[in-house]
Amino acid sequence: MSDNDVDYIARAGRRAKGKRPDTLHDFNAERTLSILMAVAGEVAVLKERLDTVERLLDDKGTISRADIEAYQATGDAAYERAVATKEYVARIMRGMQQEMEAMQAAPERPTAEISIELKNS
Fold it and tell me: Of the candidates 80, 92, 60, which has an alpha carbon nearest to the alpha carbon of residue 68?
């Protein structure tokens, strides 16, 4: 199958198997997070593609689309990309990470106290 035979819109619209995650217990928050992560993934791809262009220009001075498509990051370039991607994801997820750390650092309340609070609310 060639690139011309692929229906990218149909592929992008495919549903994932299984139930949608409900980690945040709020449909709008889940949808917003899903959109944000999709955009973040696209930006990560663009960052790698830009890195490819920059590396090829440094090496050759001129490039073609075929050069970009054929490029394979190896060795130091692959390592640098992996580190950059890890840092990028850490920056995106920083808010959630800080919230998790704050929850872990909070002193545990006795179950009886929580039970009374829930009963009275």
Answer: 60
Domain boundaries, the chain: 22-100
pLDDT averaged over the chain? 88
Task: Give phi and psi for 93, each to the nearest 5.
Answer: -90, 5
DSSP-assigned letters across all residues of 31-87: HHHHHHHHHHHHHHHHHHHHHHHHHHHHHHS---HHHHHH----HHHHHHHHHHHHH
Conformational region of residue 6, where left means phi above 0, alpha means psi within -120 to 50, and beta covers everything else:
beta
Task: Please report, for residues 15, 78, 80, 81, 117, the alpha-carbon distance to residue 87 in angstroms, rounded to integers and kept in the order given.
Answer: 29, 14, 11, 10, 40
Alpha carbons 103 and 98: distance in angstroms, whole number:
9
pLDDT in tens, 16-66: 777 777 777 888 888 898 899 999 999 999 999 999 999 999 999 999 999
Is the pTM for the entire model greater than 0.90?
Answer: no
